[in-house]
Write a structure and sequence with these properties.
Structural class: alpha/beta
Helix content: 10-25%
Strand content: 15-25%
Order of helices and strands: EHEHEEEEHE
CATH class: Alpha Beta
Strand order of the largest sheet: 3-2-1-4-5-6-7
Length: 189
C-alpha cells in the first residue's frame, strides 16, 4: 500500500454497469470505505444479466438499487452506508474530504464530471485515467471486444490495487492489456 494509507472516506461510483457494480462489491468485501454513493439512471437489461452481479436480477430494476440490496443482503459490512441516485450525472460531484474519491465508470464520458479516476474496459483492455482534465469528445461509446469474466475480475482487481496503492495521485493515463498481465501479486475477489 501507498505510504500513510488511512483508507478511503466516501467513494462515489458513477456508472454501475459491469465495471462500476463489480468495483462496488469489491470495495465492500474489502471494507475500505465508510460511505458508498452509487449513481446510474439505467435499469438492468437482458444484456446485463449474463454477468455478476446482475445474474439473478429481474429486469426493470435500477442497477444502483439492485447493487445496494445485494450488498446489504450479503451482509458484507455493518457500518457501511450506501446511498443511491437514479439519475444521469452531468456535472462535477462535490467531495468534502481529501480521502474521498469519485470513480467514473460510465460507458460514455463525453461530459467531464471531473472525477478522481476514469475507468473503462473493453475485452481484455483496461484504461485508468487520473488526469485532471480530459477531452473525451472522441470517446468510444460502443464496446467492440467480447466480455470475459476473467478479464472483468482482473480489471476490477487492478482498479482496486490502483486505489490502495494511491496510484491515482500520479495524475496519469495508463492502459493495461489484461491478457498479457502477470497476476502473481494481484488479489482477485
Amino acid at each position: 500500500m501507498g505510504g500513510g494509507y488511512e483508507g478511503l472516506g466516501s467513494v462515489h461510483i458513477v456508472g454501475c454497469g459491469l465495471v462500476g457494480s463489480n468495483l462496488a462489491v469489491k470495495l465492500c468485501f474489502q471494507k475500505i470505505c465508510k460511505k458508498l454513493y452509487l449513481y446510474d439512471d439505467d435499469m438492468v437489461s437482458e444484456d446485463n444479466k449474463e454477468y455478476f452481479p446482475f445474474i439473478h436480477c429481474k429486469e426493470n430494476n435500477y442497477k444502483t438499487l439492485f447493487i445496494k440490496n445485494l450488498i446489504n443482503n450479503l451482509k458484507l459490512v455493518n457500518s457501511l452506508r450506501i446511498f443511491t441516485q437514479q439519475k444521469k450525472i452531468n456535472k462535477k460531484i462535490k467531495i468534502y474530504k481529501k480521502n474521498d474519491i469519485v470513480i467514473d465508470c460510465r460507458d460514455c464520458k463525453k461530459v467531464d464530471i471531473r472525477p478522481t479516476i476514469r475507468c473503462s474496459m473493453d475485452g481484455s483492455l483496461l484504461m485508468i485515467d487520473c488526469r485532471e482534465a480530459t477531452n473525451y469528445k472522441n470517446t468510444i461509446t460502443n464496446y467492440v471486444l467480447q466480455r470475459e469474466l476473467k478479464y472483468i475480475n482482473l480489471g476490477i482487481a487492478m482498479i482496486f490495487r490502483y486505489l490502495m496503492d494511491e496510484e491515482y495521485k500520479k495524475k496519469e493515463l495508463v492502459y493495461y492489456d489484461l491478457q498479457n498481465l502477470s497476476t502473481s501479486n494481484i488479489q482477485l475477489l
